[in-house]
Amino acid sequence: MTFDTLLYEIDGPVATITINLPDRLNALNAPCKRELAGVLGAIRSDPGVHAVVLTGAGEKAFMAGTDIGELTALDTVTGKEFSSDGQSIFDTVQHLGKPVIAAVNGYALGGGCEMALACHLRIAAEHARFGQPEVNLGIIPGYGGTQRLARTVGPGRAAEMILTGAMVDAAEALKIGLVNRVVPKGDLRKEADTLARAIAEKGQLAVRMALKALNAVFELPLSEGLRVEAGLFGELCGTGDFREGTTAFLEKRKPVFKGE
Ligand code: COA
User: Fold this and answer.
1) Is the CB of 82 under 6 A from ligand 1?
2) Which of 40, 99, 225, 254 has a Cα-to-Cα distance from 2 of 20 to 30 A?
């Protein structure tokens, strides 16, 4: 598959998507969002892809937000549609059914921070910077930032980032739980790839159900989330992967999961 705004590589069970608009600091424009929606659909239906790494081209930016040039024509009606359409692509990332790891290689601002938040895991290079600077443009985050940031770092810290528009550096992002780990710039892609491959080796049914249960944290009260967890746990107990995992442990060998 070839794209104008993305690079897409598959190496064994790991797919890597690179937003490839480095001259614009990988700011998301309409063609890029269309291509992203297309590639996510292809990944969802490709049984060979077990994990995804998402990053930005160049060394300066993961994504510096939505393309601000595209915002200027929006009005009350088209603005709402713009936000809803973007939210639906970011929802697709969160509900892809396969783990998506953001390899944050620089600025993750506005939609870039929101994209990282829609991913399941975030690894940042030491020079990464995160922020929701929309208030400086007279708007608010519109691709899920008010909701996912607050659920990830807590409402107080989210309020500070969203109301001031100030950036946080990678060390601060680690401290507040916005990223899973921070690594030297040169190690970022390798770390993300290694993590993706470690997850890709696990039983894929268990990974998918774990993501489903984790997504329930965003959407359901605890009592309902616990019911979802019990249901998914039960479903997995009826699978060949469960038989294989438990038998392999008792036979002191490595399990061979078939995803069935
Ligand atoms: N939309 C459109 N273009 C963008 C952009 C965005 N979100 N972010 C950066 N660019 C463009 C710049 O206009 C510039 O284009 P030019 O070379 O034609 O002038 C190019 O990318 C490089 O950016 P520049 O601002 O020169 O780099 P910098 O190192 O001085 O600053 C940032 C980097 C990230 C601090 C700055 O670009 C910025 O604040 N970007 C906007 C971030 C933002 O508000 N995002 C939320 C949007 S809703």
Assistant:
1) no
2) 99
Average pLDDT for the chain: 97
Per residue in 70-115, pLDDT tens? Answer: 999 999 999 999 999 999 999 999 999 999 999 999 999 999 999 9
Q: What is the pLDDT of residues 31-55, one digit of tens each?
A: 999 999 999 999 999 999 999 999 9
Q: Is the CB of 113 within 6 Å of ligand 1?
A: no
CATH code, residues 6-200: 3.90.226.10
What is the set of active-site residues?
114, 134
63 touches ligand 1 (CB under 6 Å) = no
**C-alpha triplet 200, 210, 89: angle, nearest 5°:** 80
CATH topology of domain 204-250: Lyase 2-enoyl-coa Hydratase; Chain  A, domain 2 (1.10.12)
Nearest CA to ligand 1 atom 29: 60
E strands of the chain, at which residues? 6-11, 14-19, 51-56, 61-63, 100-104, 107-109, 121-125, 129-131, 168-169, 181-183
